[in-house]
From TrEMBL:
<protein>
    <recommendedName>
        <fullName>F-box associated beta-propeller type 3 domain-containing protein</fullName>
    </recommendedName>
</protein>
<feature type="domain" description="F-box associated beta-propeller type 3">
    <location>
        <begin position="52"/>
        <end position="212"/>
    </location>
</feature>
<dbReference type="InterPro" id="IPR017451">
    <property type="entry name" value="F-box-assoc_interact_dom"/>
</dbReference>
<dbReference type="InterPro" id="IPR013187">
    <property type="entry name" value="F-box-assoc_dom_typ3"/>
</dbReference>
<dbReference type="Pfam" id="PF08268">
    <property type="entry name" value="FBA_3"/>
</dbReference>
Amino acid sequence: MYQTRSCNFPCILLSNDDSIASVLELKADYDYYSRSRNRPVMLSPEFHIPRHKDRFGYSFDRKKLTLIGSCNGLICLWSGDRYDENYSIYISNPLLGEYFKVKLPEWEKRVRRVAYTLCYSEGSGQYKVLRSVIRKFRRRPEVSELEVCNLGVDEKWRNVGEAAYPLCGRFGNVNVNGVLYWLKDDDDIKTSASIHSFNLVTEEVMPVPVPPGLKTPSLGLRLAELGNCLCLTDSCSSQHVDI
């Protein structure tokens, strides 16, 4: 019997080394141990998520699909190698088995690194794909900029100005009151952390002050949403975690 899935219940995506493996629906009356239909839904490339294909159209293992963002039951997937220009970005509804490929800007030789994420603006009612890109210009320092594409509108990429590249190339999913937050990537581990934000309605990029006296580098920190507030955790100490 086909069972419809309600949007009123959240889901947890289960992954293995960034590879999508299954989805677990969180319903209050479920017995996750005795009833098989309430166990995690295994995701297969044949139905739930797109197959990764190279430039010649050959399919590869689903481990080439990397989870890079999620919101409202939709997931954002990177298909391909992070250091290969022949990659694709997909938006997928894994439970319905529906997905589409995001139209990306033409690749530029001066591009050094890119990072993507998916987010939703309750203020505008629009889904947005964010693209952080670092470009190298001759005889000039590298420039990190943020580009935005509104899905289902014009789907054109717009440059909203300079913005810090996210830590390890991952934005995360820290959306608090319509503002996306992320930690800045920094090659110098001795440099103290830097937090940046993007307003999903006004599309303004702003730096965010860190707690006074914080000297921990970004690699030792994590951002999260806690009680509708921005939360910063410091796990550098082996004895305790500061929040």
